[in-house]
Design a protein that fits this description.
This protein has 397 residues and is an all-alpha fold. It has helices at 2-17, 22-45, 50-72, 77-100, 112-118, 121-139, 145-169, 171-174, 179-182, 185-188, 193-214, 217-241, 245-253, 256-265, 270-293, 295-300, 306-310, 312-332, 334-337, 339-361, 365-396.
């Protein structure tokens, strides 16, 4: 990250001196998140880097602000010189940070395959699908191969970064929640926490840089907001403090459709909100079914999940209630999302309600497992239908 930040900051200085305009601001959008990521890593794990990293971030922000002065003064020589000078200060500070990053104790990296595990690829696959569906809905059909790939790569980096940071923050909990989580890379010690932190920050920074420079700034900001909400609001606070954690924290998992829609249109509209709310309403029954399956693990880690704080009967009541609201909502928004989507919402929703009712009648682990696995297929198929609908409608027209 330090090397990448220094390299791109050098490109910022050169492009400013050559007055390249668009290329200059694109380089700044790439450099700033990398420098911020280095500063966060320094503050958490490498204190000797804090001062130069702070100066690099401050100077880069000052350079961006002085760019406005250049525009106001119609590129007056003194304003341009100030702009280049501040960018040069950012470059100097980033080079000092890079130099210092090679000093100190060298940490092992751990097995390469564990870095894939840190990104939580199974969870990510569903997030990418909902993001792609949001882009199809926003584009009203096929969004274009290059555009779709750019969005998916950027969203992959954002989701992977959030997953890695989640591993770091949850390492203490993972050690207490049974063999499955205790064997995770950070919890088991195979990957040192600072390395996982660096990895997560680097992916998050690269996500913002890629999306801002190749898609649009709104898409980059939305991906970053979803990342931060999941890591800071849900993982670091809500998960440990309230049994309604997943109700509020579910907003993080509902952001990818917004990212996809914004990538296609450059803004947000009601269809994007509908997709967001579908995932938001789906998350509690999905996650509470999982919580019923591993209730004793959450108790062992002292994590306040609904089955352990309010009991299985109340949890199944909440699952059924949310399922009814979710299915009703998916049918109402069918007016906007189209007939193919609506048919899928009816068929898939009826079966979801039946499984939720079965779990309400019998709170056995078997019924919780069935609902949990079906909920994954439900959301995937529903969003596939939302993506296919504009393609079919376009063909019929």
């Amino acid at each position: 990250m330090a090397a990448g930040g220094a390299l791109v900051t050098a490109a910022v200085v050169v492009s400013a001196a050559l007055e390249l305009g668009t290329a200059h601001w694109g380089a700044a959008l790439v450099a700033l998140p990398l420098l911020v990521a280095v500063l966060i890593a320094a503050a958490m794990s490498y204190r000797r880097l804090v001062w130069p990293a702070s100066l690099a971030v401050a100077a880069m922000c000052g350079g961006i602000a002085s760019g406005g002065l250049v525009a106001v003064t119609d590129s007056a020589r003194w304003a341009l010189a100030l702009h280049i000078g501040v960018a040069g200060l950012a470059l100097a500070a980033s080079l000092v940070t890079l130099s210092l990053s090679f000093s100190g104790e060298r940490l092992p990296f751990g097995p390469p395959r564990d870095y894939l595990t840190l990104t939580k690829p199974r969870v990510m696959s569903l997030l990418l699908l909902t993001g792609a569906a949001g882009m199809f809905v926003g584009a009203g059909g096929w969004p274009g191969a290059l555009e779709l790939c750019a969005m998916l790569v950027g969203l992959t980096l954002a989701c992977g970064g959030a997953g890695a940071l989640n591993h770091v923050l949850d390492a203490d909990i993972d050690k207490l929640m049974g063999d499955r989580t205790a064997s995770r890379p950070v919890a088991s010690g195979r990957v040192p926490a600072p390395r996982a932190l660096e990895f997560g920050l680097a992916l998050s920074a690269l996500s913002f840089a890629l999306l801002a420079s190749t898609v649009n700034v709104l898409t980059a900001v939305l991906a970053l907001v979803g990342n931060l909400f999941y890591v800071i609001v849900y993982t670091a606070y809500l998960k440990r403090s309230t049994d309604r954690n997943i109700v509020i924290g579910g907003a993080a998992g509902a952001v990818p459709p917004l990212v996809g829609y914004a990538a296609a249109t450059g803004d947000l509209a009601l269809p994007a909100l509908w997709l967001f709310l579908i995932v938001f309403l789906w998350t509690p029954p999905h996650f509470w079914a999982l919580a019923l399956m591993i209730k004793e693990h959450y108790v062992a880690a002292n994590v306040p999940m609904l089955p352990s704080t309010r009991g299985e009967r109340e949890t199944t009541r909440q699952i059924l209630l949310y399922s009814v609201v979710m299915v009703a909502f998916t049918l109402v928004v069918g007016v906007t999302l189209g007939p193919v989507y609506t048919v899928a919402a009816v068929v898939l929703g009826v079966w979801f309600l039946w499984l939720a009712w079965q779990l309400r009648r019998d709170t056995s682990r078997h019924n919780a497992v069935v609902l949990f696995h079906y909920s994954l297929a439900y959301l995937a198929l529903l969003f596939v239908a939302a993506a296919v609908d504009p393609l079919v409608t376009g063909l019929s027209i």
